What we know:
Blueprint: E1 5-11, E2 16-24, E3 28-31, E4 36-43, E5 46-50, E6 53-57, E7 61-65, E8 71-75, E9 81-88, H1 90-101, E10 113-115, H2 117-132, H3 138-154, H4 166-179, H5 186-193, H6 197-208, H7 212-229, H8 234-240, H9 246-257, H10 261-269
Antiparallel strand pairs: 1-2, 2-9, 3-8, 4-7, 4-9, 5-6, 5-8, 7-10
Helix pairs in contact: 1-3, 2-3, 4-5, 4-7, 7-8
Amino acid sequence: MKNETRKMCYDEDLQVEACRFEGIMQPFPVHFHSYYVIGFVESGGRYLTCGNAGCSVGAGDVLVFNPQDNHACTQADGGTLDYRSFNIKPEVMGRLAKEITGRQFAVRFHKNVIRDAGLFLSLRRLHEMVMSGSTEFEKSELLLLAVEQLIQECGEPFDNSVAEYNAEIEKACSYMQQHFAEHISLGTICEATSLSKATLIRAFAKSKGITPYRYLENIRLGEAKKRLEQGASPADAAFSTGFSDQAHFTNFFRNYIGLTPKQYKDIFKSKT
């Protein structure tokens, strides 16, 4: 049997807790929390009850609980549960909702189980970043986008149409092109454009087809390629273009180019 893992950490930037339960067989009796829980099942089958309703949940399912929602679960197969979650205080959720919708209101989600592959993958990526202590502003993007989707789909619908902010988006692009080697936060880009975080993310994605963080990563990637072509080591190319560490740089490079930085560098070495 796989050993149990129970971990929790707090992200100061996002002001959320992240929890990881792995290899769990323990049933959880009826209980509730004073905070919102947004979780997802990595593997294992459970029977979940929330209020007067019950259903089976499994790998890929996203679970959402409001403060005071009574819920319980038991293992529904012969395996174990691998589960990750975020705990978000009501005041933090309120700030996120106001950032996203422009209105102050008490968020209440009307579904406890959501089956959405895109949302699941985004939450997994966010959880990995929080647990690793990442300081990249991709965390803020992922959290805002996830909460926006949840509010829109199972909370209080709102008008999420995006106005065009062409001048502001070009300012954001220019800022990232000039400062790509530095540590850039979502907040600093918002200051440069006078847009809120949620508005910047939505307007940028509408204009450019990708989020601000992915745009920044692509600028860094292009600059890193130039350095590798000129003979820089992968470590120097990563450091000089603003990547948080060489492992992240290598993974990102391989995902988008299809080669490791060293393999790419060696192509140009053979031409000299």
